[in-house]
Write a structure and sequence with these properties.
28 helices, about 775 residues
Amino acid sequence: MTSVKKQIIAKHQQGLFDYPKYWAECYGTAPFLPMSRKEMDILGWDSCDIIIVTGDAYVDHPSFGMAIIGRMLEAQGFRVGIISQPAWHSKDAFMELGKPNLFFGVTAGNMDSMINRYTAERRMRHDDAYTPNDEGGKRPDRAVTAYTQRCKEAFKGVPVIIGGIEASLRRIAHYDYWSDKVRRSVLFDSKADLLVFGNAERPLVEIAHRIAKGEDIKSITDVRGSAFLTNQALPGWKGIDSRDIDRPGKIDPIHSPYEEITPQTCSDNEAKTTEDALFNDATLDVTKTAQPIQIADYRNKTWENKAKPWETTYINLPTFDQVKDNKVLYAHASRIFHQEVNPTSAKPLVQSHGTRLIWLNPPAKPLSEAEMDGVFGLDYKRVPHPSYGKAKIPAYDMIKTSINIMRGCFGGCTFCSITEHEGRIIQSRSHESIINEIEDIKEKVPGFTGVISDLGGPTANMYQLNCKSEKAEATCRKPSCVWPTICGHLDTDHTPTIELYRKARAVKGIKKVLIASGVRYDLAIEHPEYVEELATHHVGGYLKIAPEHTEKGPLDKMMKPGMGSYDKFKELFDHYSKVAGKKQYLIPYFISAHPGTTDTDMVNLALWLKSNDFKLDQVQNFYPSPLANATTLYHTEINSLRNVTSKNIAKEGGSITVPKGTIQRRLHKAILRYHDPLNWPQIRQALTKMGLTKLIGSGPNCLVPRETRNEQHAKNNRQGKNNSQGFKTSPGQNRPKSGQANGKGKRTPMHKKGLTRFSEDQFNDRKKKKSH
């Protein structure tokens, strides 16, 4: 059995570039990481030490995950090969580079494979920006699982380590929007040996060196930023129940006073008593059974030698079976998970899945500025692999002249998964490193015109913004540093960003430096000089920002600031744009159908858009991604942003409003596009049902015009056809009998009938018609 001492997770991890180089460093740096045996032969390799399997096309650029990880491991001395977008129907493609000496690294790519493949309405996409020629269908659903199983099949006994955004967001039991159920950790479905979450350079480098020294991957259980399966808790560790940290209440449904009350039988009462006993029975929880008391002797001991029980304490989350069937416990587990993301103070999380446990170590320590510089200063060619020829890769074309200046986000927006993946602490590069990358772009990017398309990251203006108090940062468990108000410990000085912009503009040959990443406007107004710099030099006519909504209800569930901050930013932006003699405009982004949003909220947002003369071309319906806070709200309809207790849930009226179902989600999206005549019938119907017919008309305060005779005529003509207005009709309803004309003396051509979209109650409607 492994010793207890070895299982203690180190508080300080070794520097990325402090490891002795692996012996294969003698082969030097490859022009491109090889994707074929022929390339390996040219490099003089007889085998690869590590093979990365990815769902993206291989682009040797620091915005692509496989390039960063591949080059990082290469810098450690390992020979790294790439298998990009393999045919997953057999093991053949996974044997292309032979058997790796150390392990396979598997990632779905820069995007979750399900989000990449399906729209927010669960419709399949027919394109893929990370594939040559934008071709869809080049990666499987749940790519991490599919790829891992093929790697295991190709070479039995070779360790497989999974990572990337898809694995990160599925590291514990999670709600899966596409199957509409709670799924197990991806470690169970994929059968991988180890999972690394986050950007993962630090844990992956440590694991690679330990495997290279002969350590069995099954014994590597103490690496921060990793997760694995085990049969029991690690030796020397003690568990505490998550419900002792943030105890959820037992929530009973609120009964309607008008509901008919059915007398209970003795068996009903007996069943209820049994259920209550199971819920509250502490003996069923191994962490609540009697334990021998251990008295520590603190006399004459230095701090280093004193017992620190919190360093060997893990948190027991509710089991998979519990969160699968109990939404209160799912919401509770989500709260605990999001509280334990601070790399300094987070405890390991343990969740039982049947007879096995998933052990989730605390997040890895953030990279220092020197380490960030080292990662982004590796020898990237900044172009796609030559095997793609002249094929266009849209994702590359979008970012080929952009520069990532930082990582992480402390905004905590509930619909976003950046915090769950990259963490809340901002990791920034030095000015020198960024300027060197500009020079690198000038030299390596074909057809460079002198325009840097972006200096940014998850957020444009969080560069070098960190907590001013090391003690507060080390212990903080708040999900956001800027909501509901900006934390007093947060440094909001944008001076380093302003200086960076000025240095970038001064580089010889640079004509323009644009800021394309989203600007956090509530932070920007804290430093008006930043807004002036931005509006004067770095906007190409339009600047995108994301208020997401105008109403307090949905904004609170998004953890976004109110519109007062937007108004202040707009005032500053318009002023400085005018001073600079430029006509520039803000492009606000909004989300429809977000949890907490009512139909009235959407109407008020649409009225705000109309009063400000905004006509949105594209609208994003809320997309529930795994592990995001908003996804928990969507699934449970419980406000997990506060303690999940009976008292707090009662304040929400029992549950929060969650727009679900195709009809309501389409309605919310249609309301945002109030100016589109195709949406008017659906909006009129909704306004009438809401008692807001005053908003139908030609007045300045009206949202949509009244129905015209032409619309009435057109509606009558398309009765029974598939349409985009959300009507509950389809080609299967009101269909003329065989041989019967369609009213104009002609049959409707098949190509004009479209696809059948059945409504939820269409069959009930049919039965009613038959009964008449």
